């Protein structure tokens, strides 16, 4: 059990829990702090494995009941499951359903549902995560499929008379900008230069509501799923693929139905009047990925060929327009928070997806952000805000919106404590978006560690402190504003292919603008009780989707680490004295974990020293919050808990960079594709061995030291310089890494004139430090 804060109640024993399960809604006697009634069960189905003791029972095949261990949380009790011949479940992950828990029984009863997969198997572990979050990869029903159009569907003639046809205007440049390989294209952008010198800027969204009619079987399936779930190398669609990846998707060169939002802007790109909303027909002239769009912008107009000049001009206008819109929001307190999305690239020869070899052959990288991502995001935010305002003018307190409440008053107490104790910053203010942004920026500037790591730490930590954004029905009494985006009204309008909430927004919007077909809508769009229930359901589905994406990414990451541990830079968050746990944060992966210091053989003493401090090796080294260290990330497989990431102090932790080595640490965090050419060529030219890197370093230096003493009779600095034949030697990964940094540092300094003596001295110290460890 745990202690709760914020006017919550501490329940200090399992007896007082009175058969309540973790996350249940309960009634509590505040005098005795005891659960007196379970109001509702949060979860009824669980993923389990056989209890290890019962699994080893030689008479298991003759039994009709067995104890099982739920995987969702260690706070859940074991269940007594009833099933004949439970020996068939050895080594399996399966699902059970909670039945009852009478006062006379030690364990709650449950009955068997189905086998999910094998314990320790890649596919089985992923499917177990999906099942635990109630997300199933089931085919669409027969009735829903019967409502789908044919694959050779074309736009009906009657739509030509009732929609604005952007295809007829050759001056309007329409294109899409999406992640590489995207097939469910929700949105397209357009720019048209006007004779007045201004522009017509449009955001065009797939008209999914045309295909998904209200109260149809297809609508019911989309509502139940709530959202598309994106997994590494896979997605679980909210709508059938013929819609999500074909007829609704705004594919290049295809005529598609859309709902458009169009602004008129002057020469200074300031909006004039209210935006135009309506149903439309568009043809996407070009599907561009983020990185190609950024490369086009970076190349400048001078290098543009005739066939891409229109796209460059349109991107330039959209980027300038989006930048001005973002500045307005930032002045109003919009938050810039940090997160990371890992990319998993599986080799083509990985074999059967059910085998561990798939994940072991998976390369892991952080998604590289470019400015065009911010441009597209800002245009979507502007369209969502405009849609919310139009809906609110019509539906008022029945408007279906997206709100984000202010964080709790004490949410940032731990960050404030960090700032006071370690940065001498006593005025951290989180009372508004503007003050929070200013405080985070100042904390990042004051941090002695590298800016990139400090930014990831503070902004990533701030993101965790925020309350979740949620779908909401305006009630007139409670604020419906969005704190994070600093806007008064906001909704989800721009992604109806993958979010059911956007379909609701489309229906309300079309009704608000007087669309004749929307006028025949169901009264469900106005019934607040129905909309509130729908908002609760979609909030739960969205939350589970995020949990699944995070957990499945961790499964991918863990399987890739089984035989391929990685050394990563981490930042110390805090130290738990009772558990002897060092809590760390990995900026490159935005991942948090625990280092159990009692398991570290080098740790001799664990004496607290200040806030979260700990001395190791009898005071030889101290850890403190915000300090940068090296962490070894690996994975372990547990029968009851599955595959899990583990964090240990790296063997190279004594080589942790000093406070003034910001440039060196920045070079380590760069992706290989962005490393200097010489360093990349050097890394590709050496032979990598799988031997212990620390041992190899020490043995090689000792051997070379003995050889030098034998030849010269004394020690010289020459023994620390790699031999000229290093390209033919088998170097360990860490040696390669250090030599790569050295090569990158030399290249950087050769390109930059170093004229002042302090710069020369700093470069000499860094080079000497690298040579010393080599």
Structural description of this entry:
With 774 residues, this protein is of the alpha+beta class. A seven-stranded mixed sheet has the order 8-15-14-11-10-9-16. A five-stranded mixed β-barrel has the order 3-4-5-7-6. Helix 10 packs across helix 12, helix 12 packs across helix 16 and helix 14 packs antiparallel against helix 15. The radius of gyration is 30 Å and the shape is globular. It starts with 13 loop residues before the first helix and ends with a helix. The N terminus is likely disordered.
Q: How much strand? A: 15-25%
Kindly state the percentage of residues in helix: 25-40%
Show unreliable segments: 1-6, 347-361, 601-619, 653-698, 712-730
Strand order of the largest sheet: 8-15-14-11-10-9-16
By DSSP, the count of extended strands is 30
Shape verdict: globular
Counting helices, strands and paired strands, the structural category is alpha+beta
Give a brief description:
This protein has about 775 residues and is of the alpha+beta class. The protein contains 22 helices and 30 strands. α3 (about 120-130) runs antiparallel to α17 and α21 (about 735-750) runs antiparallel to α22.
Layout: helices, strands, pairs:
Layout: H1 14-17, E1 25-29, E2 34-40, E3 45-50, H2 52-55, E4 65-70, E5 79-82, E6 92-100, E7 109-118, H3 122-132, H4 142-146, H5 157-162, E8 164-165, E9 173-178, E10 187-193, E11 199-206, H6 208-211, H7 217-225, E12 229-231, E13 234-236, H8 241-247, E14 255-265, E15 276-283, E16 286-289, H9 290-299, H10 306-331, E17 342-346, H11 356-360, E18 362-366, H12 371-395, E19 400-403, H13 413-422, H14 433-446, H15 451-465, E20 470-473, H16 500-512, H17 528-560, E21 566-576, E22 581-586, E23 591-596, E24 607-608, E25 614-616, E26 621-623, E27 628-638, E28 642-649, H18 662-669, H19 677-685, E29 687-688, H20 693-712, E30 730-731, H21 733-751, H22 757-773
Parallel strand pairs: 5-7, 8-15, 9-16, 29-30
Antiparallel strand pairs: 1-2, 3-4, 3-6, 4-5, 6-7, 9-10, 10-11, 11-14, 12-13, 14-15, 17-18, 19-20, 21-22, 21-27, 22-23, 24-25, 25-26, 27-28
Helix pairs in contact: 3-17, 10-12, 12-16, 14-15, 19-21, 21-22
């Amino acid at each position: 059990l745990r202690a709760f804060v914020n006017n919550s109640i501490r329940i200090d024993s399992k007896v007082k829990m009175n058969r309540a399960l973790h996350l249940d809604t309960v009634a509590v006697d505040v005098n005795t702090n005891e659960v007196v009634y379970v109001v509702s069960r949060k979860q009824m189905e669980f993923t389990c494995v056989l209890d290890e003791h019962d699994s080893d029972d030689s008479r298991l095949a003759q039994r009709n009941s067995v104890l099982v261990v739920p995987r969702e949380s260690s706070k859940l009790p074991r269940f007594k499951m009833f099933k004949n011949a439970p020996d068939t479940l050895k080594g399996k992950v399966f699902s059970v359903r909670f039945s009852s828990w009478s006062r006379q029984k030690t364990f709650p009863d449950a009955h068997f549902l189905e086998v999910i997969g094998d314990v320790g198997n890649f596919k089985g572990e992923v499917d177990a995560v999906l099942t635990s979050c109630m997300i199933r990869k089931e085919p669409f029903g027969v009735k829903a499929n019967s409502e789908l159009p044919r694959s050779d569907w074309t736009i009906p003639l009657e739509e030509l008379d009732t929609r604005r046809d952007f295809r007829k205007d050759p001056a309007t440049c329409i294109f899409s900008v999406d992640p590489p390989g995207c097939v469910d294209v929700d949105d397209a952008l357009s720019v048209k230069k006007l004779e007045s010198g201004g522009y017509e800027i449009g955001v065009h969204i797939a008209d999914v509501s045309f295909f998904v009619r209200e109260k149809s079987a297809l609508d019911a399936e989309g509502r139940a799923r709530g959202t598309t779930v994106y997994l590494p190398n896979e997605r679980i669609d909210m709508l059938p693929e013929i819609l999500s990846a074909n007829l609704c998707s705004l594919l290049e060169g295809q005529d598609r139905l859309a709902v458009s939002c169009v602004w008129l802007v002057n020469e200074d790109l300031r909006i004039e009047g209210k935006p135009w909303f309506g149903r439309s027909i568009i043809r996407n002239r070009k599907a561009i990925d983020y990185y190609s769009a950024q490369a086009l912008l970076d190349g400048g107009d001078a290098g543009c060929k005739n066939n891409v000049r229109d796209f460059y001009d349109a991107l330039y206008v959209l980027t300038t327009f989006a930048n001005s819109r973002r500045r307005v929001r930032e002045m109003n307190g919009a938050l810039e928070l940090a997160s990371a999305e890992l990319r998993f690239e599986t080799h083509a020869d990985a074999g059967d997806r059910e085998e561990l070899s798939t994940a072991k052959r998976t390369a892991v990288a952080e998604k590289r952000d470019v400015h065009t991502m911010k441009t597209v995001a800002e245009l979507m935010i502007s369209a969502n805000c405009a849609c919310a305002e139009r809906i609110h003018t019509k539906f008022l307190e029945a408007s279906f919106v997206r709100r984000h409440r202010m964080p709790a008053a004490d949410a940032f107490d731990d960050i404030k404590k960090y700032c006071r104790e370690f940065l001498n910053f006593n005025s951290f203010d989180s009372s508004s978006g503007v003050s929070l942004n200013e405080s985070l920026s100042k904390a990042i500037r004051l941090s002695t560690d590298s800016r990139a790591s400090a930014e990831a730490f503070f902004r990533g930590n701030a993101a965790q402190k925020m309350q979740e954004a949620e779908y909401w029905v305006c009630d007139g009494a409670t604020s419906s504003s969005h704190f994070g985006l600093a806007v008064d009204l906001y909704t989800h309008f721009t992604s109806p292919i993958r979010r059911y909430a956007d379909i609701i927004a489309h229906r309300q919007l079309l009704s608000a603008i007087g669309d004749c077909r929307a006028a025949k809508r169901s009264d469900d769009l106005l019934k607040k009780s129905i909309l509130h229930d729908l908002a609760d359901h979609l909030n739960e589905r969205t939350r589970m989707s995020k949990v699944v994406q995070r957990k499945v990414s961790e499964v991918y990451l863990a399987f890739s680490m089984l035989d391929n541990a990685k050394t990563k830079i981490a930042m110390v968050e805090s130290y738990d004295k009772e558990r002897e746990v060092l809590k760390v944060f990995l900026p490159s992966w935005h991942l948090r974990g625990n280092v159990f210091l009692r398991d570290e053989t080098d740790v001799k003493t664990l004496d607290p020293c200040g806030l979260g401090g700990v001395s190791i090796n009898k005071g030889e080294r101290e850890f403190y919050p915000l300090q940068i260290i090296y962490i070894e990330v690996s994975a372990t497989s547990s029968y009851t808990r599955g595959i899990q990431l583990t964090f240990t102090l790296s063997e190279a932790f004594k080589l942790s960079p000093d406070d003034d080595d910001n440039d060196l640490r920045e070079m380590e965090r760069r992706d290989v594709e962005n490393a200097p050419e010489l360093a990349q060529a050097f890394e590709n030219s050496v032979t990598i061995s799988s031997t212990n890197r620390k041992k190899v370093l020490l043995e090689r230096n000792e051997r070379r030291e003995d050889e030098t003493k034998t030849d010269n009779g004394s020690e010289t600095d020459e023994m620390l310089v790699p031999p000229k034949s290093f390209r033919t030697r088998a170097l360990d990964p860490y040696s390669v890494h250090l030599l790569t940094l050295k090569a990158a540092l030399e290249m950087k300094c050769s390109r930059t004139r170093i004229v002042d003596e302090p710069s020369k001295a700093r470069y000499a110290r860094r080079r000497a430090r690298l040579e010393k460890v080599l």
